[in-house]
Amino acid sequence: MTEAGGVTMSAEQMSMVALDEPSWDLARATGQPFTCNPADTAAVLAFTSASAQPEQAAGRDGLFGPVVEVADDAPALDRALGFAGRDPAWTPELA
To answer: Domain residues of the chain, as ranges?
Structure first.
């Protein structure tokens, strides 16, 4: 078991959180391209889709935002981001 940001879970699960959205957030916010290899994308999609199930709602607190609806036929990374509470279409506002 490990803890980050007040959330405790298995190290395996926490690795999926770390692999998921922080890198995308940073890349998107700074205008950098972001890619994720297919194996990592599949692992993150499995984790975030499981966490998005209604019976997992309490476990999402402090970890993910509310699920963002993404088309079922969207790319796997976009669906994973949506399950994690990220809008894959988000871009920073230009100053």
So the answer is: 10-83
